[in-house]
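Translate sequence into C-alpha cells.
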Amino acid sequence: MTEAPTPGGFNLSTVFRTVAEAVPEHEAVVWRDVRLTYRDMDARIDGVAHHLVERGLGCHAERAGLAGHESGQDHLGLYLRNGNEYLEAMVAGYRARVAPFNVNFRYVEEELLYLLTDARTRALVYAAEFAPQVAAVRDRLPDLTVLIQVADDSGHDLLPGAVDYEEVTATPAPAGGMPTPSGDDLFVLYTGGTTGMPKGVLWRNDDIYVTSMGGTPFGTDEPHASYAAIAEHARTQGGGMRLLMIPPLMHGAAQWSTFHTFTGGGAIVFPDDVRRLDPADALRTAARERVVSIPVVGDAVALPLIEEVERGGHDLSGLAAFNNGGAPLTPGVRDRILTALPHILVMDAAGASETGLQMSSMSLKGMEAGTAEFSPVRATAVVDDLRTRRLGPGEGAGWLAQGGRVPLGYLGDAAKTAATFPVIDGERWSVPGDRAELLDDGRIRLLGRDGVTVNSGGEKIFVEEVERAMAAHPAVRDVVVAGRPSQRWGSEVVAIVQLEAGHQAVTDDELLAECGRHVARYKVPKAVLRLPQVVRSPAGKADYRWAKQVAVESVGVSGG
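Result follows.
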C-alpha cells in the first residue's frame, strides 16, 4: 500500500483500492439483488480500466505542461442512471488515467451532441436505454472510438462496434502494464446547464478529494496524511456508514457524498427504482438496509420523502441525518422533517461545481438554523464587487468566493477561466457568481446566484429569496421564480407555482400576501403562473432556462 499521497497527491482510484485492501469484505454497493464487496468491486474496476488502456486511452500530456483550461487526458463520458456500473466506470477511468465526466441523461439530441463535442469524448459508457440517442449522434463525434453498453431491460441490442459492459469487467491486464494514477489527474464535472450552456470544470483529483470527497475527515481542517491513514480510518469506522443515494450520480454532490462514504469503508445503497423518485420504495430500502444518512436536493426530493414518512409504516430508527445540498431546503419542509423524525440531524451544505463544499448549517429539533445562513469552511470568504479584496464582517454584500484548493479552469475556455478564477492579493480564488453577505458573527448569508437575479426598476432581486418566501404558503408545493420584460419596470418578477392537490382554490392575492410577509414589497412577484408541474433537473435543481422561457411567453397573458 502506498504510504504517502504521491505523485501529485491523492488519486481517487488509489483511494478506493486502499479502502478495498483495508476492508475487503465490507459491502461497497447495494442495489436490488446486487451486493458488491470492496474486493469484488475493485476487481470489476480493474477489468474496465484494463479495457480502456488496451484501447489506447490514457494520459498523453502531464499536468505541469498545461494551462488551467487544458486537458492532457482522454475523456470518458458516463451516460448512466444510478447503479454500480456508474461508480465502477468512474473509478476505472481514474485507474486508466482517463478523465471521466458526467452526462445528463435527460438531454435531447442537440444538447447531448453539444456536451460530447465540448468534452472531446473518446469513450462512452452508456445504458442500453440510451442506445438510440447515442446512435443518433455518434457519426458526428469523430473522436468517439470506444463504446461500452450496459445491458438493461430496454430491449435494445448492442450498437455496432460497442462492447458489453459485463464482458469488459473481466478484461485481463494489458501486456504493456498499467499506468500509475496521479493526484494531478483530472476530475471533470460538467455544470448542469440550467442557467446557460454546460461547462466542464477541471479539478485535480487531489484537490477535489481533500476539499469535498472525504480527504479531510468530517469536523476537522486537516486532510488525511497518507493512504495508510485512510486505510486506518476505514478499518476503525465500525463497519462504515450506509448512505441511501437518491440524487443521480451525474450530480457533483452525489459523487462527493459517495467518496466520503467510501473513505470510511461504508456502503452506497440505491433504491430499487432509479428511474424516478418512489418515496415508498426509497424508505423501504432505507429501513431494510439500516441506512444512516439520506442525501436530498432541496424540497423536490425532501418533500415527497417526508410526506411518505408522515404516512407511517417505516422504521427509520437507525437514520441519523438528512443531508441537503444543491438546492434550497425551505424552512417549512425542514420543520416537517424534524417534526416527523425528531431524532435526526438536518444538515444543509452549500457549494458549487467550481468551489466544492464551502459552508454548512445544522438543525436539530428545537435548535433550527437560520434560513440561508451558514458556517463557512476556512477557505471560504466574501470578496468585494470588483473582486479585489476580502470583505470583513458587517461590510455588506459581495461575491461568495473560495480560496486554497480550487479548480484549474473550464475545459477549452481560457477567457471564462480567467474571469471565474481571479487572483486576489496574490492568491487564486474561485468566484463562480453567487452573491453573499458576511455577517457580524462570521457566518455567511447566501443571497443567490447573480446569473438568475432580476433587475426590476433598478433593484436587484435574488430569485431564490423570493422562492423561499412563496414556498412559505402551505398551498405551494413547488415554485421557481424568473423575470420577464415589463414596460414599467424593465423586468419584473413572476412566480411559477405548482400547488398542492386540493389547494387549487387559493387566490393569487393570498399567495402574494404570504410572500410579502417574508420579503420587501418590491421583491413580491407581479404575477403568479400556475402550472401542473415545475420543471427541475433530475437532481432536483431549478431549471431557470425553462422558467425564463415560461415567464417570457406569459407576457400579455397575465400582466406585464
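Note: The chain has 16 helices and 28 strands.
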